Predict the 3D structure of the following.
Amino acid sequence: MSGRYIITVDGLAGSGKSSISSQLARKLGYAHLNSGMLYRGVGFLAVNLNLPENSSGSDAARLIKQHSMQLELHESTSRLLIDGRD
């Protein structure tokens, strides 16, 4: 098989997933994407724009479409920009 592999790490909150994943990515020369960052980004928008807790998925999708979300992947880290802000 040619090309690079995708490696996923799963575990409990606070178990060290991000720490070990970023170290592994750095050693292998892979990009590191912390998917929790994406969920927190959407949560950040929802809280700051007062989206009710009982909102539907389509409400959240509409909210996301109204804002710019840019994911920057670097060698062993990633960064999410919302409307150009980190």
About this structure: The mean pLDDT is 86. The chain is about 40% helix and 10% strand. Strands lie at 69-73, 78-82.
